[in-house]
Amino acid sequence: MPAKMKKNYLICIIGVVIGYLLLSLVFDTGILGTRSAYFNGLAVIGMFYTIVVCSLNLLTGYMGEFSLGHAGFMSIGAYASAIVTTLIGQKVELSGIVIYLIAILVGGIAAGIIGFLVGIPALRLSGDYLCIVTVAVAEIVRVVLSNVGIPAITGAATFGKSFSGIAKVSDYHYVYITMVVCIFIMYCYIRSRYGRALIAIREDRIAAESSGINVTRTKVLTFTISAFFAGVGGAVYAHYITTLVPTYFNFSKSSEFLAIVILGGSGSMTGSIVASPILAALPQMISYVVPAFASYRMLIYAVILVIVMIFKPSGLFGTREFSLPKLLERISGSRKKADAR
Amino acid sequence: MRKRNQISAVITAAALGMGLLAGCGSSTSSAPAASTGDAAAASTAAATQAAASGDFDGTISIGGIAPLTGSLANWGKGAVNGYTLAIDQINADGGVTIDGKKYQLTSAVFADDKGDPTEAVSAYNNCMSHDISAIIGSCSSSCTLSFVQTAQDAGMLVITPYSTNATICKTGDYIFRECFSDANQGPMLAKLATDEFKATNIAVICAEDSDYCAGLAENMEAALDQMSGVTYQHYGCVTTDTDYTAQINSAIEQGAEVMIYPNNYDTVPNFVSQARDAGFTGPILGGDAWDGTDVTGYESKFNDTYYLAHVDLNAEDAAMKAYVEAYKAAYGEDGLNAVSSLYYDSVKMLAQAMEDANSYDPSVVKDALSKITYESLGGTITYDENGDAIKPFSIETFKDGVLSYYGSFSS
Amino acid sequence: MAKFIQSLINGLNLGSVYALTALGYTMVYGIIRMINFAHGDFIMVGGFTLFYTIPVMRAMGLPLWFSVFAAIAVCVVVGVLTEQIAYKPVRGQGSTTALITALGMSLILENGALVVFGSAPRNVSPMFDLPTLKFGPVSTPGTTILTLVIGIVVMILLMVFIKNTKLGAAMRAVPEDKIASTLVGVNVNHIITATFAIGSGLAAVASMMYTTSYVSIKNEMGITLGLKAFVAAVLGGIGSIPGAMLGGLMLGIIEIMVKVYMLPGAYEAVTYLILIIVLLVKPSGLMGKNISEKV
Questions:
Q1: C242: in domain
Q2: What is the reported pTM?
Q3: Which contiguous run of DSSP H or E holds residue B217?
Q4: CATH architecture of A2-340
Q5: Digit-coded pLDDT (tens) for A172-214
Q6: What is the ipTM of this complex?
Q7: Which of A115, B33, B247, B318 matches a 20 to 30 Å C-alpha distance to B272?
């Protein structure tokens, strides 16, 4: 069995490397010509969406609770990382990768701390009530960021509340690796003892509690991890976009994230990984050709969302996961059968 | 081949836009707004194709960015028209002459930023994916701020027609604007309140979460601080607010003679009608973002309101009259606002700078731009050492709902 | 003191908009345990109906406020259609599905309005032409007082209706016990539809009140308004009709007072902080009943 697991890991690593090489092929060789900057940007947007959506899926799919405030955690990560990297950038000259690493760590930890502090009292609630508390938290974060002169902390000369001049270090190479690592950690978490406990709580809280699972601890831990990765996503966003505006992280953004989770299938990481880049980047690519499409984007999402809810509430992938080794096995398996015949 | 692809894409877009337009009936929607953008782009494409058969020696491509959809879409509508009109006029007059050769000016792309900074970065990337010599855009300061640093690093010339935030042009030597800066607008607004309306007690109601509003208010309050015998109170709000009764009440109790509301046009009707309802009869002043305010149904309440403007569209000036006539002939009344004329002027100024520089290479044109003296529709523009425009101010007022010229200031 | 009374009137005015909207949330939640996120957008629909029908009324020579009836009609149709098309099929599929469907309907209405009406703000013309009233140092526009009176009258009528009619009794019975009310001959489906119709009608009245004070409307106006009204419903105790009224009025007054005396730019933080505290300390709100979890 360990030999098989080793093989499976190897196959996954090869898959990830192939994905990386494909990206490099598209962007580094310049076969897209002057358009590469545009598609490069889209790729980064798709990837940070993937990180945030997967982190939300951890709550929605595996804990069975909704957060309509994930944009709030994302904004905490974005602002915290941007403040730290800007302050450091004023003192010492660092290479891009170091700044990037500092950024994602700071962003994740800051959002994780807030997630922990919010989670302890809030997770006594569940369902609609918890959902509303997350909305309230995100709105408070937005209002505070709109009113406190964050840029002034770094001595920036902008007047308003936009935080501009953040180092642009979210290169797609780094972001791709970050995304893979984040998904890997979340996947491991779900497969761990805690993850199984989490699913048990989702299925029947009281039964889980009576069989000795510490419900509160598991929930708070999951909430914190989810907030952590939302913060990482925010840090990636901040260091790609270079200007932060508090109004960006609003209720509509949070509901967009939740819509993507549900459409991909809550409880399926694969669903989120497939749905996020498609739903984040594809509309932009369509409006690249057909500008009028921009107005229809969210309407189309919403209609699909309601239709999916009515006819297939489990979303695109349900709770199924895609597995490269299994796929290979199936292909080779069928070949073996054919050989045997 | 590439150009043909573009043209066919634009035509498909326009056709699709029309189809959608037919689909949603006779309503006035943002989809038509966007599709007028397409139609305009298509008409440029058609015009340039017709002109290409003439005697041009080459083409110079530029890109534009404006909010074609979103809550600031009123600006985008005029922007794309003014921009297209300028390109058409330049080409009709024989294009841009560089080294004795005639170049045709074409618009490679006009991207939509939806008034959202993230979308503005995508719009910028979209522009950069074409082989262009300059970018004209964008409207809101937050959007422009989101890409100017990247543009400066990439050596791309940016002329923002309408973003007045004081920090924009300090980004670098590739960044210019066709409008005044809030560093000048703020003191001017203070001067308007204290000199023109003799106010000694002023209330400032400002949206804290907008770069434009907060920046303008900050510059203005700095100027008020320097004046003796003038007191003012600052009241915060946010861009999504609808209720201002609390701030207005406090301002009235404070005894304000003048209220200054330096926020975007979409919230102005709410503010003015609530201020008048609360019994405030004094002047209400605003900044240049009041341009495009809808006063329908509340005409009388808008009496005694004033704002600083980049141009006066009703001026008795020959150039302005010609512009308004040409605009109406091409697009009708729709979107004919100051923003349209600023996009128009930006393109024309760029063409003049290219001719001055005898090049369309951004690194050469930028030096010519910094030394340019350009006769815009709103008055003469020159640049100071920061690359910030120095430009006269017009004061506009509403007389029973009709936008009228009140006076002018020069900075 | 004048400022305080003035602010109190403004707060009551804003609060009654919240209250009328919160009623819609509370009634629906009471019956089917679903946060109807689309409810805030019904007000936007009402607002646009007013925008388009006021000129029609003017052209026909009718009093302008007749367009309120048009708004009520349109809102009721939209509300009932929403319930029939989207909510009915997902009923019984669990609260998560219902929540997401409601969110989806809200997005459909907002973005549908974006496509149909555009994103530019519109001014709704004044429907009433009343002079400003002066009580000593306090001056208030007559329309504010009028809409305030209308709002309160509508709320009283609703109370009377719920208390004294057969339909009202059925509407009270269904949230208590669905199965028992079916047994005594109540058609639960009809009651749910009626609830949506009444809730949407109240939203139309709220849109009339809203537009007299806050003249410009746009497609996204329902989001914030809906969230605030929901906070009001939770504050008063979700599921409780008098609670929604009390919560709405309280929230309106609190918001205005915070703006006047504390933080004009950050008052929303206070609003949401109140929500969090209420939910954590007394999730059943001021007037709601505690529902213990069934094992």
A1: no
A2: 0.85
A3: helix B211-226
A4: Orthogonal Bundle (1.10)
A5: 889 999 999 999 999 899 989 999 999 898 888 889 889 888 8
A6: 0.88
A7: B33
